[in-house]
Structure formats: structure tokens, C-alpha cells
Here is the input.
Amino acid sequence: MDVFEQIFIGQEYLSLRSLKDVSLVLDLGANVGYSSAWFLNCFPNSRVVALEPDDRNVAISRVNLKPYGERAMLVHGAVWSESTSLKLWKGAFRDGREWATQVVQPLASSGGDVQAWDVGSLIDMAGVGKADLLKVDIERAELAVFGETARTWLPRIRNICIELHGPDCEKVFFQALAGFDYSLEYSGELTICRNLRIKTVAPRSTDTAARN
Here is the structure.
């Protein structure tokens, strides 16, 4: 109910209403589907890929997203820097509640609990070329997601809305965006980057090139 209040009463994502031409939303860390439902109602021409690793949350999401039919694609899994199998950690992060479930790399001697994909693979799964909105709330997995491999899929993202979990996550995130121009704003716990575009380097003048 706290998540419901944040999204529908507190209007956590209200500033995103001004986004135009939203066709695909990736909801990474969808919890019980409230954020996905909000996006589906806010952007009536959109589809949402809702990704959630916690099986308890997935079961509730399935009920909450059923009314949206094929517009909502619910995926039981996690996002990472690559396609792999990860281990679920429940009850060990923050307040230990269902919204704080983490995914980590398993020890060599043990297997994973849940399938994970990189962001590019999730866009491909949706059958399109890019995502108009990437919503991210993944309990510090952003350290992996926005690492070295992020450069392969970031050009396919138009807008990002992310909850960053600590200064180290913030540092990794903005380092990944160093090659992009965007409009930056904050809304509560959310960091929002609008209109991502690759930075262009102005060509040197002929005279400057000749002198060098």
C-alpha cells in the first residue's frame, strides 16, 4: 500500500506526463505493477515491459496488469550488464520488505534463482528499436547495469527516470551518461534525464587543422 500511495496519491511520476510520443516503456523493478499501470494510463498509446525478479511481486503484478491485455508484457526476471542467471536476496536490504529485494551474482559453487537480461535485449524482446522511457528502481543493481556495457544500449533510450541508491550508484550512472546531452531534473527520490542525445563534437576549422 505504501507503493500505491507513492504512485497514485503522491503522484511520484507526475512530471513525466509531459513526455510526448511514448510508445515503449521499460519498467525495470516493477514491484507489483502499480508503476506500469500508471504509465499505461498516462500514455494510452504505449506498451510497457514490466520486469520484476521477486516471484511474490510478479504474482500480484499479473493480476494488476491483466486488464491492459497485450499492452503490458510482464517478465519474471532481472536486469543486469549481460544475459545471465542471478541470485535473489530477500529481506537483507534497507527495510527488508518486498520492494527491497536485490539481485546479485551467485557464488561459483551455487546457481542463480532468476534470469537476467541487459537493457538492449529487453528492447529487442519488445520487438522495437528503442525505448521512449526507461524507468529504473533496481536496488543498487544500477552499479552493474550502467557499467561498461551500457554504452551499447544507451543510444536506444530517449528518457530515463531512475531511483539511485547511494553516491556510488549516482557516480556510475552519470559516468555512463558522460557522452550524452540531456535535460536533468529531480522529483523526490527520482533523477530524470530527458531527451538523451549523443554529444556531437564540432569539427575543427581548416586553419586550426593546418596549424596542428
